UniProtKB/TrEMBL annotation:
This is DUF4880 domain-containing protein. Residues 98-187 form the FecR protein domain. One of its GO terms (molecular function) is sigma factor antagonist activity. Gene3D superfamilies: 2.60.120.1440. It comes from Sphingomonas ginsenosidivorax. InterPro entries: FecR (IPR006860), FecR_N (IPR032623), Ferrdict_sens_TM (IPR012373). Residues 9-45 form the FecR N-terminal domain.
Length: 301
């Protein structure tokens, strides 16, 4: 058989195996064993599909982790082991980044049924070989997790580790600070002797400068409301609000020291601002002016 025919057949198998209802394992095994070139072609096609899926930004990224049936695992692994030492079944970390620009959002759908929505200016690290782990490097993300006691979902943020206990929760990493808010179920923060369990309606604030971790009450209705273009606050500083508006609107908004520490409670419908931060000034009780290439919150004259 010509190589192009083998490549075409390999691509067909990759597509078929991506279907959760796929069950024709005996045929797949027989194809792999029929020619040593088949395993190599299948592996190459799998990598091509994953790389193309990860590169497409407007659509959700689906990260597939195939669970081989017990009876077929050894035989199929033996065939695929001919290529790069079990490369197609490799369980080693295979991380990749998902990023958003300021002023945009993106949803990542994981093969286990979990979903993550990224706010603007956010960078999230995922693993092609393990959809049950994520690292939030910066920005904000809402996790809606399918709970699995035997394989809990983990989020790494800053120096902390969050483990789901049947959960929907929001994580924000900005300005040297980590914030967590739980809208359903529970999350274990740094599980262990000194761990903290956060339940529905609770949140947590940790700063990189040290000090005690603060557990706070949160409005469940406001957790993740930014996905619907609503920023909800209860006593947030204007410095935090400015940072959130920057990521939501795609602008560079800063709070001057004279107003940065002021507390704000309320909701901001970002869609109504139409990318213009000055429209939020009356609600925030400040003046907003352009200064060079950025905007500045200042005290009213």
């Amino acid at each position: 058989m010509e190589q192009h025919d083998i490549d075409a057949r390999a691509l067909d198998w990759v597509v078929r195996l991506g279907d959760p209802a796929f069950a024709d394992w005996k045929a797949f095994q027989a194809w792999l064993e029929a020619d040593p070139r088949h395993a190599s072609a299948y592996h190459a096609a799998s990598l091509d599909i994953e790389q193309m899926a990860a590169a497409v930004s407007p659509e959700p990224v689906v990260v597939a982790r195939r669970r081989w049936p017990a009876w077929a695992g050894g035989a199929i692994a033996a065939s695929l082991a001919l290529v790069a030492g079990y490369a197609a079944l490799d369980t080693r970390a295979d991380p990749y980044a998902v990023e958003t620009r300021a002023g945009t959002m993106r949803t990542v759908a994981l093969a286990d049924g979990s979903a993550v929505t990224l706010g603007g200016a956010t960078r999230l690290m995922l693993d092609r070989n393990d959809p049950r782990t994520a690292t939030l490097e910066r920005g904000q993300a809402m996790f809606v997790v399918r709970h699995d006691t035997a394989d809990p979902f983990e989020v790494h943020v800053g120096a902390a580790r969050l483990v789901d206990v049947g959960t929907a929760f929001d994580v924000k990493r900005t300005r040297g600070e980590t914030r967590v808010a739980v809208s359903d179920g529970a999350v274990d923060y740094n599980p262990g002797r000194d761990g903290i369990r956060l339940v529905k309606g609770q949140g947590l604030v940790e700063t990189d400068t040290g000090g005690a971790v603060r557990v706070i009450a949160v409005d469940v209705a406001g957790v993740g409301s930014w996905r619907n273009s609503v920023l909800a606050y209860d006593g947030a500083t204007l410095a935090e609000v400015a940072d959130d508006l920057s990521r939501a609107l795609g602008v560079d908004l800063r709070a001057e020291p004279s107003v940065a520490g002021r507390a704000f409670s309320g909701s901001i419908a970002t869609a109504k601002l139409a990318g213009d931060p000055t429209r939020a000034a009356p609600l925030l009780g400040v003046a907003v002016r352009r200064r060079g290439n950025h905007w500045v919150m200042t005290a009213r004259p």
